[in-house]
Design a protein that fits this description.
It is built from 27 helices and no strands. By secondary structure, it is mostly helical. It folds into 4 domains: 88 residues; 143 residues, no CATH class; 194 residues; 155 residues, Up-down Bundle (Methane Monooxygenase Hydroxylase, Chain G, domain 1), CATH 1.20.58. The longest helix has 102 residues. The protein is flat and about 160 Å long. The termini are far apart. It comes from Leersia perrieri. One of its GO terms (biological process) is Golgi to plasma membrane transport. InterPro entries: Sec10-like, Sec10_HB, Sec10_N. One of its GO terms (cellular component) is exocyst.
Amino acid sequence: MPSATDPPAALPLTLDLEDFKGDFSFDALFGSLVDELLPEFRGEDAPGAPPPPPPVLGAAPPVFPAVDELLGLFKHSCKELVDLRRQIDKRLQNLKKEVATQDAKHRKTLGELEKGVDGLFDSFARLDSRISSVGQTAAKIGDHLQSAESQRETASQTIDLIKYLMEFNSTPGDLMELSPLFSDDSRVAEAASIAQKLRSFAEEDVGRHGVTPAVGSANASRGLEVAVANLQEYCNELENRLLARFDTASQRREMSTMAECAKILSQFNRGTSAMQHYVTTRPMFIDVEIMNTDIQVVLGDEGPQADSISIAEGLSILYKEIADTVRKEATTIMAVFPSPNEVMSILVQRVLEQRVTAILDRLLIKPSLANLPPIEEGGLLQYLRVLAVAYDKTKELAKELQSIGCGDLDIEGLTESIFVSHKDEYTEFEQASLRQLYQSKMAELRAEAKQQSESTGTIGRSKGAPVTTLLQQQISVTVVTEFVRWNEEAISRCTLLFSQPATVAANVRSIFACLLDQVSQYLTEGLDRARESLNEAAAQRDRYVIGTSVSRRVAAAAANAAEAAAAAGESSFRSFMIAVQRCASSVAILQQYFSNTISRLLLPVDGAHPSACEDMGSAVSVVEATAHKGLLQCIDTVMSEVERLLSSEQKATDYRTPDDGAAPDHRPTNACIRIVAYLSRVLEVAFSALEGLNKQSFLTELGNRMHKGLLNHWQKFTFSPSGGLRLKRDITEYGEFVRSFNAPSIDEKFELLGIMANVFIVAPESLASLFEGTPSIRKDALRFIQLRDDYKTAKIASMLNSIMAE
C-alpha cells in the first residue's frame, strides 16, 4: 500500500467515467475508495489481512492511524474528479457545436419544405376548385338529362293517357272497346291509377270550360263530358269489383288480398269509400241480434226496473266486449289498410255513435218535469243515477278505445256530445229530484206521526196533553243527515258530469241551495210545530184563570186544571228545547258538510264561495229567528208557572211574625222551595240543549224576568223583621239557583236583592247607614221600606224625608 509520503501521481487511478453512469451511489463510491485502507470498517475482516502491530511501550497509540493515507487518497481522488470534469466539459462543448451545426441544417431544410408544402397546397386548392366546377357541371348535365328523361316519360304517359282518353271518348255507356289494360284483373292497380288521372283531367277541363259547351267547340266539350261520364262509370264498376273481392277475402281472412284491394281502393276518394265500407259491414253494426243482446246484457232479467248498480255491472260487461271487439278489428286494420289510423277513427266513431248511442237511448229516457215518475219506481233519482253510471262507464270505454287507437278522432268531444242533451238540463232535473225526495220524506214522516197519534192519542188526551203535541213530528237529526246524504250524492254526480271549475261551481251552488232550503224549511217547520205546542199550553193556562169570588169546588177544579196546564207547558218546554238542540246539531252537520265538501269546489271561482256563505247564513238566520221566538215563549211559559206558584203557594203570613208567639221559621218559604224545584227540573233540559251565546242570552233573559217578577210579587206583602229574615232566606235560595246560569249581571242583581232585604230587618234609625253602605239600592229600597209593618207606627216616612233631604 502506498505511504502518506508518496506523491499523488504515484497513487493508482481509482476513478473512471463509468463509475458515474447508471444508478450512481455516492456511498458505494466512497466505500470502494476506503475499503483497502480501512478494513476494520467492513462488515467482516478481509481474509489474510495481517494483524495490527503491537503497541510500542511508552508511546501513545495514534487516534486514527490511516488519516494520512486517507488524506492523500482524497486529494488524489479530487484531482482525478477535476480531470474528469474537464474532460466532460470539453466533450459538452464539442457536442454543443455539433448540435448547433445540425440545427442550422435542419432549419434550412424545414424552410425549403414549407415552401414546397405551400406550393403543394395551392395546387390542391386549384385541383379541388376544378373538381368542384366539373362536378357542378356534371350535376347540371345530370339534372338536364333527368328532366329530359322525365319529360320524355311524361310525354310518353301523356300520349298513353290521351289514347286512353280517346277510348273513353266513345258513345256514352259503351265500355266494350277499351284497351285490355282496363279489363285485365292482374293490372287492376295500374288501371285504377290511370282511370283516376283521366277522370281528374277530364273533370278539370269540363269545369274550366263550363258544363254547357260553346258553339264551335261542341265536339271537344261533348267528348270530355262523355269521357267524364264513362270514366265515372268505369271507376264505379272497378270500385265495386274491388269491394266485392275485398269482402270475399275478408270472409276468408285472406289478409294479403284484403291489403292489395285496400291499397288499390285508396286511389278512389283517398280510400274513404273502402274504409267506410269495411266499417259498415262489421257484424256489430248490421246484426240486429247483437244490438238486442246489448240491451239485454245491460238490463239483465230485471228489464226497465233494473237499478243503477245492476246497470253499472251490465255496462261494464258490455263495454269490455265492445273494447275487445275493437281491439281485434284493430289488428286486422293495421295489417290491411295503408292508412290504419283513419280507419280506426271511422270505426271508433261508428261504435260510439251507433252501438253505444243505441244502448244509451234505451237506458236514458228523459222524464218529464211536469209529470214526475212515481217515487215508488225510483222517481227522478233513478234517471240521474243511471245517467251518472252511463256517463262514467262510457268515459271509461272512450279511454280504453283511445288507448287501442282512434287516429285523429276527438273521442272526448264525441263522448261529451252523446250526453249533451242530458247535461244541458241536468241542474233542473237534480233540483227537481231533491224536491221530490224531500216531499216524499215529509209525507212519510206525517204518515208516521199520524199513525203514532192514532195509537196513542186517547192515552195522551186522557193525561191532558195538547192534541198538537201528540200530532207533531219532532225534529230528527237523522232526517237532516239524510238530506245531506242526498245532496252529497247529487254533488258527486255534478263533479262527475262536469269538469270546468266555473260550471261546477254554478251547479254546486244550485244543488247546495236545495239543501239549504230543505234544512231551513224542515227545521223552521219543526220549531213552529213546537211553538204551536207552547201556544196551546199558554191558551190552556189562560182558559183556567178564574176570579177570587168563586166557590171552593170551582176553585179546586180550576186548580186541578191549572196543574194540568202547567204539566202541558212543562212538556211543551221540554219538546221545544229538544227541538232547539236538534236544530243546533243539524246546523252543525250542515256547516261541516259545507266546509268539507262544498268549499273546495267553490273556492277556485271568484265570488262563488262568499255567495254560498251568504246563502247559508241567510238560511241559518231564518232558523235562528224562529228558535229565538220559541225561546221567548219558553221563558213566558216558565214565568207563567213561577207566577202561578207564587200566587198559589205564597201566603200572607210567610213574612209576618207568627201570631201565636211561636219561634220564627227561618227556612225558605214553600213557594220558594217549589219554584226552585220546578226551575231545577224544567231547566235541566235547557242546560243540555242550549250552548254558547244561545244559552247565555236565554238564561240572562230568564234571570232578568225572574228578578222583575219577584220584585213585583213581593210588592204585595208587608214584612216584619222576622219576615225580612225569611225573605232574605228566599232571596239566598233564588240567588244560589241562578248562580248556575253563569250570568254575572244576574248574580249581581240577586246579591243586591239580598242587601235590600235588610231594610226589613234593621231598626228604623239604622236605615240611613244602610243607604250609605249601598247607594245603588236606594230607588228600590225606598219602595220596599214602605212594606215594613212598622212603616206608619215608627214614622219611617218622616225619617226618609230627612234622609233624602240630606
